[in-house]
Each structure stands twice: as C-alpha cells, then as structure tokens.
Design a protein that fits this description.
Blueprint (H helix, E strand, L loop, with lengths): L3 E7 L2 H17 L3 E7 L5 E3 L2 E3 L1 H11 L16 H8 L11 H15 L4 H12 L4 E4 L6 E8 L2 E6 H7 L8 E5 L10 H6 L3 E4 L8 H6 L3 H7 L4 E4 L2 E2 L2 E2 L4 H7 L6 H7 L6 E4 L12 E4 L7 H18 L6 H4 L1
Parallel strand pairs: 1-2, 1-9, 2-5, 9-10, 10-13, 13-14
Antiparallel strand pairs: 3-4, 6-7, 6-8, 11-12
Helix pairs in contact: 1-2, 1-12, 2-5, 4-5
Bound molecules: ligand FO1.
Ligand FO1 binds next to helix 2 and helix 6.
C-alpha cells in the first residue's frame, strides 16, 4: 500500500483528540501514513522566565500518552509543589496552573531556545521523548502571541490571550484579537512543504480564530493551503450554534462571525473542499464545499475514530490525488 501523507493544522484540545482518533483509524485500516501536524503557537506565553507552548504541548502529551485526560491540557498525575512555592513568594500569575511535571518541559524548551535552537528543533527534541507518532512542527519559529483588546473597569487595554481565556474565562467581550508578530513571521522549516506535498489536508475541530486562524495568518500558509493539490477537509468545532468545548463563540463574536457551523466554513472559504458538521447542523450548505453530517461529539476513542474516518472518506471522495484545486475550477 502506498504511504499517505496527511497534514493537519491544529490547536489545542479539540485538535489533539481528533488527531488521536485519526492515528487510531489509520492503524485500524492498516494504512501506512505519515502525519504532519502544524501547531498553533500564538497561545504561547513566557511565565516565570519559561516559554510555555500550550497547544504544542497538548498535541505532544495527548499523542504521546502523557496528557491529563479529563482536563485535556497539562500532565497526568500532576502535582503543584513548585507553583505553590512560587505563590508563597507572591509571584504572579497565580491564575495559570503550571504543574511540576509540566515545568520540566518548559525548562528544557527555554534552555534550548536560550542556547539558540529554533522552536521547531526544540519541539523535535521534546517529541523524541514523547514519540507522538506524528511530525509536530510549530507554525513558525518566530514568536507570535495573540493579544486581546478589552474595555473593562480598568479601561481599554490589550492583554495576553491566556489572561483573557484562563483568568477571565473570556467573560469580558474581546473588542479585537490580534496575533502580534504574525505579519512578520515566517513559516517554520517544513511547514509549506508539508502542505504542498500532502495527499490530504485536515482542519480538525480547533478554534477557528485563535488556533487555525492564527496559523493561516502566518504569511505563506494561507496561500499554500489554497493552492495545494490535496483535498482539504475540515471538522466543525461548532455544534448547534455552540462550541464543542472552550469559548470559541467569544472569539468568533470578536471578529464579527456568527457562532455556527456554516459561518465557520465561510471563514475557511477558498480553503476547504469538504466540511463535516454535526447531525444537529445537517442541511448546512456552503457553495463549492461538500458537507456531510454525523455525530461530532468526541466523547471517547471510538466516537473520535468515526469522525476521523469520515474526514478521510470525504477527502478520498473529493478529489483524485494530484488534481489541484485550480485545475478543478
Ligand atoms: N487552562 C486553564 O484553563 N487553566 C490553566 O491554569 C491552564 C494551565 C495550562 C498550563 C500548561 C498548558 O500547556 C496549558 C494550560 N491550560 C490551562 C490550557 C491552555 O492555556 C488553553 O486551553 C489553551 O491555550 C487554549 O487552547
């Protein structure tokens, strides 16, 4: 059987769980596959002098067997001694819970970055331990950080995305969300090639604004997706007008997009060929996009595998390999 090259753009929990289902489905089919994951890095933040990359780590831990399953982020069997000690010294922020095991990852990453290694090589080194079974590449080696403009009792100001998301639970409306640094960022080595050479390109059910949106904001990536010869299939992160998890609705509102499976597909207009929606959204129609409906809640391993299978089947039905989008139109 020929090797299938699959490339996915991914954010945090939704992306990571989908990818785990994808790996399980490919293994069950006996399909030899090479999966490349282009990870969002705009959630990254420097805390206590350490560089934390939540989305890369969520993918790495989830696929490598180290994730805290119920939480969806951070390490299993975690303890918080270091954080408690930092709190005793009065160190801020106290709202971001970094565990002892997780701290080790950020220490290794920061040491390597300080020694001059680019984030892509650091990520490769971290993955050598976790063996996620995919090639995980950050969208860029250049720092990009989403900042959120809010206007509350303290006035109009921009705060880091993590403060808005984790401390404020997105309760204060975002006036705008800006991926600082994205305009000047270059795709990390291998990103554009992984898109151009893919047989299948997938958009998992990740946040369309602060995960997939920021990956696409890195110059060159959107163009690479829109011109790839591979079928591009996305999975809706919105079911029946609400996010599957997280607060994607607050992010969509910030950019003036309705929280619906159809509106997110429109956001990806010109990029996707196929779109999976939940049965609650059956009947969604998008010009030029093949829409299929099935249950999209990733409640466990088997249900997630079914979603991944549907994405692979839709991709296979969409376009014979090698026929570019341009030549189809
Ligand atoms: N999410 C939370 O809701 N609270 C936390 O304290 C928290 C800590 C944290 C530490 C490391 C890490 O990799 C992720 C962490 N997350 C936490 C999740 C994460 O910040 C967000 O869910 C994502 O950035 C959004 O995709």
């Amino acid at each position: 059987m020929t090797l299938v090259r699959i490339t996915a753009l991914a954010g945090g929990i939704g992306g990571a769980r989908f990818l785990r289902g994808l790996k399980a489905e490919l293994a069950a089919r006996g399909t030899p596959a090479e999966i490349t994951v282009i990870g969002n890095t705009a959630d990254d933040i420097t805390l206590f002098g350490l560089r934390v990359c939540p989305d890369l780590d969520t993918v790495m831990y989830t696929l490598g067997g180290g994730i805290h399953e119920e939480q969806g982020w951070g390490r299993a069997d975690e303890t918080f001694t270091v954080k408690d000690e930092l709190t005793a010294y009065g160190l801020e922020p106290q709202w971001f819970r970094l565990g002892d095991r997780d701290f080790a990852t950020h220490i290794v990453r920061t040491q390597m970055l300080d020694a001059g290694y680019p984030l892509s090589q650091v990520t490769e080194a971290l993955c050598a331990r976790w063996q996620p079974g995919v090639r995980l590449i950050p969208m860029s080696d250049d720092p990009v950080e989403s900042h959120v403009v809010i206007d509350d009792a303290q006035g109009r100001r921009a705060i880091h995305f993590q403060e808005w998301w984790v401390r404020m639970h997105a309760s204060t409306p975002a006036l705008s969300i800006v991926p600082i640094g994205a305009d000047d960022a270059k795709p990390a080595p291998g990103v554009l090639e992984a898109i151009a050479e893919a047989d299948v390109l997938l958009f998992p059910p990740s946040n369309p604004v602060v995960s997939i949106g920021t990956i696409l904001a890195v110059p060159g990536i959107r163009d690479a997706v829109s011109t790839t010869g591979a079928p591009v299939v996305g999975v809706s992160p919105i079911i029946g007008g609400a996010p599957v998890r997280g607060m994607a609705d607050a992010c969509l509102t910030a950019i003036g997009v309705e929280t619906s499976a159809g509106a997110v597909a429109q956001l990806y207009s010109g990029l996707i060929d196929g779109w999976l929606v939940d049965v609650a959204d059956a009947g969604t129609e998008i010009d030029g996009v093949e829409v299929r409906a099935l249950p999209l809640y990733m409640v466990d391993g088997p249900s997630t595998r079914v979603i991944a299978a549907a994405a692979l089947d839709l991709a296979a039905d969409l376009r014979p390999a090698g026929q570019s989008r341009a030549s189809r139109q």
